Amino acid sequence: MKRTKVVALVIYASVFSMALVQTRVKAVKTGYDISKIRGQISQKNARNRHLRFKMQELKSPANLEMLAKTRLNMVHPSPCMTAKLEPLSESTPARGNLLASSR
Hints:
It contains 3 helices and no strands. The chain has helices at residues 2-58, 61-70, 98-101. The termini are far apart.
């Protein structure tokens, strides 16, 4: 009887120890996974900062003007190519303007 109790106690202790070891192994693996994900988040944040900076750089007026000149062959218009438009007065209805003619 005493020997059976000792064997049962050893079996329970072994099962408990294996469960404890398995739990610790899972905890360590989870720690490594968390560390890996934190590294990925850090890389994504750095990439995001870089892309935001690049976007601001591309949207700058100087860059847009350079792209218009080089890729689209645009130039500043000469004075003879421009016309100054005077604003309409309140009393003068605009021709062809549906909003102005409906007043």
